[in-house]
Recover the amino acids of this structure.
């Protein structure tokens, strides 16, 4: 079976673009952008640099959690240097009891980096978040346009996607709920996603260790799980393996979807043709079309937008709908200058099952200054 094309995230590129401008330049630009967001009606959010680690690590996906700096305070227990602003701002909003609100923030975030990279471990973000009572396309377009307005002087390409299209495709597969759940859980891990898809499509064998586990009389503790939990999981996988494979035509449709990339108008035509063969994705495609119209209404040139069905599927795990990023045309700056998206599922998790809706984005100040210096 052909492999699903899953591009590496821009954020993992070698970062020669991380040379720091002066602190004065950074501070001035940070204050300028923050003031523009506040002037647009946003409240100022200023979450603490140190956050409770136990809470946040359970909320963040594996990618961010693995990059976080964790320490221990003798009074408050494990603490984490904030790896981003989204979760603490969302927690503060939910605690406020407000239904709808806009927030702006600025400050440093902290991420560990691969030893082979020369990426900054701490950098300044300025962000804008919109919380609403519905998953509004108008809010999606507003946030994207608001970010665009503060960086429109730069030569940038807007790339958009929609995790919701892929999620709707997976949930409509003719297979068990167990398999759908597994694929949805690993959307963010391309290699594991492909491995599971091959297995469920019948083109890869069940891992041999599964059978060994269920026959073992002395199963060791692995990752904190008890022998009974491990055995139950192994039996569930074995039982699932006895189900028939996902229909080959559906696998081909999924592969086709994940390969779609290019000018948004061309991609929408491709998506509509795919929806004729796969009607379950039609609603999400219609919403993408409406979203492009809403961006156009904000003055964004739709002819200059790139659509990528894979966009951000290897990075921030909490996005579950519309995603977007602004990328520099300069080859030395491969990471996004600004990035954002919708994260309703994250809000629902924080709010313990209550439906809550939000979309937001952050601008990387250093990359703005670096790009300006290269013009």
């Amino acid at each position: 079976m052909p492999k699903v094309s899953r591009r590496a995230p821009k954020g993992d590129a070698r970062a020669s673009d991380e040379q720091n401008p002066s602190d004065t330049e950074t501070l001035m630009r940070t204050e300028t952008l923050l003031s523009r967001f506040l002037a647009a009606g946003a409240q100022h959010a200023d979450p603490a640099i140190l956050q409770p680690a136990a809470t946040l690590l359970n909320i963040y996906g594996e990618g961010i959690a693995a990059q976080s700096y964790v320490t221990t305070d003798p009074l408050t227990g494990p603490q984490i240097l904030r790896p981003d602003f989204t979760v603490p701002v969302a927690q503060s909003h939910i605690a406020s009891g407000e239904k709808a609100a806009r927030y702006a923030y600025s400050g440093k975030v902290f991420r560990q980096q691969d030893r082979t990279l020369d990426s900054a471990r701490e950098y300044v973000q300025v962000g804008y978040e919109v919380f609403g009572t519905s998953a509004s396309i108008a809010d999606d377009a507003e946030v994207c346009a608001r970010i665009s307005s503060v960086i429109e002087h730069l030569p940038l390409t807007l790339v958009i996607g929609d995790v919701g299209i892929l999620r709707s495709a997976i949930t409509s597969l003719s297979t068990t709920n167990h398999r759908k759940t597994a694929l949805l859980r690993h959307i963010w891990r391309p290699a594991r996603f492909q491995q599971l898809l091959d297995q469920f499509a019948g083109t890869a064998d069940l891992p041999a260790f599964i059978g060994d586990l269920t026959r073992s009389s002395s199963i060791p503790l692995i990752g904190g799980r008890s022998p009974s939990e491990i055995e139950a999981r192994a039996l569930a996988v074995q039982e699932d393996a006895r189900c028939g494979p996902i229909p080959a035509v559906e696998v081909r449709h999924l592969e086709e979807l994940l390969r779609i990339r290019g000018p948004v108008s061309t991609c929408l035509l491709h998506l509509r043709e795919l929806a004729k063969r796969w009607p379950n994705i039609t609603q999400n495609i219609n919403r993408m079309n409406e979203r492009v119209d809403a961006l156009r209404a904000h003055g964004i040139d739709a002819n200059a937008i790139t659509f990528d069905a894979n966009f951000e599927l290897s990075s921030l795990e909490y996005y579950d709908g519309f995603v977007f990023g602004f990328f520099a045309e300069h080859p030395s700056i491969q990471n996004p200058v600004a990035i954002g998206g919708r994260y309703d599922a994250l809000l629902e998790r924080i709010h313990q099952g209550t439906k809550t809706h939000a979309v937001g984005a952050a601008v990387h100040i250093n990359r703005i200054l670096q790009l300006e210096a290269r013009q």
In short: The chain has two domains: 10-168+250-374, 205-235.
